[in-house]
Amino acid sequence: MLAIINVVLPVFALISLGYLAVRWRLFPSEGVRGLVQFVNNFATPCLLFSAMTTADFRTTFNLGVIVPFYVGAIASFVIGSIVAVRVFRNRPGEGVSSGFAAMFTNTVLIGIPILHRAYGETALTVAFSIIAFHASVLITLGMLTMELVRRDGAPIHKALGVASVRIISNPLLWGIVLGVAANMFELVLVEPVDAFITMMAAAVTPAALFGLGGALNEYRLQENWGQSLTMALLKLVLQPTIAWVLMVPILNVDHEYARYGILLAAMPSGINAYVFATYYNRGVNIATNTVLISTVLSVLTVSFWLYVLGL
């Protein structure tokens, strides 16, 4: 138990520091967006590039880990959307937005720091094989579904075009692609370049967690907390449980690698759930509350999964 506390406490302490710093006006709220953009667009791509240059692709791209992760995510999306429409009487577009919040994982701002503290560098190379497809696959799925169900939906080819632009312009994907290319061609970086990338990569954890904490000040628990709590539980409980069932009893994936994918699936809803909802103006309050509730509850659920999976 002490080992779990040692992993979880510093992570959520940094999130709390960011929240309180903005709440008490010790850090400007307008600076939070820039900090998160720095993490997503600059620091994390450097971290991904660095990890891919030294990765052993025979173990990194493990389909026994990748496929169950995405099966769990898509199942949460489908179930969340159906529950939102049938149980909470949402309109179809709002249901898709709710399901997206139950599906999309905070892989970068929380997932990477916790995996790194729990299992070290080895866990990150496996996690990056999931992150490589995460935004592109799930955002495309969400956009296509939204365009199919909302009454004022745009043509499918337009949705595909927007999704393609988002994928191609994603700095995280470029960090992975360039890192894989450097690995394949055995590129050796000169010392100043290697030092630059190392320094940028080192900024990911503190900046990501502080920025996430600051961003939580923008969210307020509103009247849809019951539905948001349901979506949060689908994200925190159902999604990693499906991943565990597929990886462990069914596929018998090596425990060392399975736990990386399962723990990543157990992370809370990512901020992109809010971005997705605002883009379509569907279920914004529900997405917002789901991010907030799942982030707070993940203190307990992540600790539970660390106990189950072992350190």
What does this structure look like?
The mean pLDDT is 89. Helix content is 81%, strand content 0%. The chain has one domain: Na+/H+ antiporter like fold (Up-down Bundle), CATH 1.20.1530. Helix 4 runs parallel beside helix 7, helix 5 packs antiparallel against helix 7 and helix 5 runs parallel beside helix 15. It is globular. It has 15 helices and no strands. The termini are close together. The protein is mainly α.
Task: Summarize the entry for a quick read.
With 311 residues, the chain is mainly α. It has helices at residues 2-23, 30-53, 57-60, 63-86, 92-103, 107-119, 121-149, 156-168, 171-184, 191-202, 204-215, 225-250, 255-265, 272-280, 284-309. The chain has one domain (2-309): Na+/H+ antiporter like fold (Up-down Bundle).
